[in-house]
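sry for the spam today, last one i promise. struct tokens for design, 125 residues
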């Protein structure tokens, strides 16, 4: 898996782009780096671009644990997931996103970067 974390200063959005197959541990490393970037930049918007990613999680429990870990992060964030093209991975991301939302995280799924950015920019959190 490859991932890149960047900060769009103009729109105050931290962007994470993930590509290739990723294990649970790799997803956690990308998550940690993204949350650190949000913290360092005083940012409350996080865009996760998963279009070219595929999950390599071993079980539904990995998805559940990952969703719970994102929801427990201390920052107040709005989180936009741009969904993977791979159907199995879409299901994993949808499940993870549902866990995040059920635990109180403001999160939503999108099929395009443009829609995700528009939703993030509506928020003044």
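last one done:
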């Amino acid at each position: 898996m490859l991932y890149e974390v960047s900060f769009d200063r103009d729109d105050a959005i931290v962007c994470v782009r993930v590509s290739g197959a990723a294990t649970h541990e790799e997803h956690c490393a990308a998550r940690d780096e993204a949350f650190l970037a949000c913290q360092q930049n005083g940012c409350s918007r996080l865009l996760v671009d998963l279009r070219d990613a595929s999950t390599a999680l071993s079980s539904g429990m990995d998805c559940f644990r990952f969703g719970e870990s994102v929801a427990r992060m201390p920052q107040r964030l709005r989180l936009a997931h741009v969904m993977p093209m791979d159907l199995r991975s879409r299901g994993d991301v949808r499940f993870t996103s549902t866990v995040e939302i059920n635990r109180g995280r403001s999160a939503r799924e999108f099929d395009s970067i443009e829609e995700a950015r528009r939703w993030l920019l509506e928020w003044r959190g």
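The helical segments are 24-41, 60-72, 87-102, 113-122. ok im logging off now
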